[in-house]
Design brief:
Layout lengths: L4 E4 L8 H15 L10 H20 L5 H15 L5 H14 L10 H8 L4 E6 L3 H11 L7 E4 H4 L6 H11 L6 E5 L2 H11 L2 E5 L12 E3 L2 H7 L1
Helix pairs in contact: 2-3, 3-4, 5-10
């Protein structure tokens, strides 16, 4: 293909965030004996947490919430829903979650094979909205840090997908131009829309085959398809 640079999203694209987060919370649920603290059902606890997490990430991306607030308030609101009013516990769980989560070495199906296939063929980079230290730890523990030349986070670029500034920062860091680049991500209104807005070709990784109105350059349901494409 015509591309020289591949820009990957990390969470849900290469790194299995859902599996890792579930596994992490199951460990913390037992360690902190949350069942005896008023949260007797793990699935109910995790479902409520996920709802608050998703909502607060939307506020964070829109600029209505600060990073430090997001980290602990998603847990604080979860505890409140169970009538547990314990700020110290919310902060403890937040710190423990952020410490344990990135050590989960769980990749999406065929992610490692895709990176190995592209190694030597393209310069590979990351563009991620995740926290700098957390994302780097994920890469290290998953054994895939070596594949990437530039790792661009929202903290590093002082911007977030889908805003054009983070893509422009990434292009400058990589010494690349849009016609030579391909963005690969799972979020249609974050990765795909952001790439389209700066004139970069993109792949929508859509394993659940969600309907949408965007027009990515390519769309795949499995990373194996992308291996064949590249």
């Amino acid at each position: 293909m015509k591309y020289k640079h591949l820009f990957f999203d990390l969470d849900h694209t290469l790194w299995d965030f859902d599996a890792a987060s579930t596994q992490t919370w199951k460990i913390l649920y037992e360690q902190y004996d949350l069942a005896s603290r008023g949260m007797p059902d793990f699935d109910a606890f995790f479902g409520i947490y996920t709802g608050h997490n998703d909502r607060m990430w939307e506020r964070f991306r829109a600029g209505f919430m600060k990073r430090d607030e997001l980290r602990w308030k998603r847990i604080w609101h979860t505890l409140i829903d169970f009538r547990v009013y314990d700020n110290d516990l919310a902060h403890q769980l937040s710190d423990a979650y952020l410490e344990l989560l990135p050590t989960r070495a769980i990749l999406m199906p065929s992610a490692k094979e895709l990176l190995e296939h592209c190694k030597g063929r393209y310069s590979m980079h990351l563009i991620t909205n995740g926290f700098e230290a957390t994302q780097r730890l994920k890469l290290q523990h998953a054994g895939i840090e070596e594949y990437f030349v530039e790792i661009i986070t929202s903290e590093k670029s002082n911007s977030m997908k889908p805003h054009p500034e983070i893509f422009q920062f990434a292009l400058q860091a990589a010494g690349a131009e849009c016609p030579d680049c391909l963005m690969i991500g799972d979020a249609i209104d974050i990765d795909v829309l952001g790439a389209i807005n700066v004139g970069m070709d993109c792949v929508y990784y859509n394993p659940q085959r969600k309907p949408h109105s965007r027009k990515p350059t390519y769309e795949v349901a499995h990373l194996e398809e992308l291996t064949k494409l590249l």
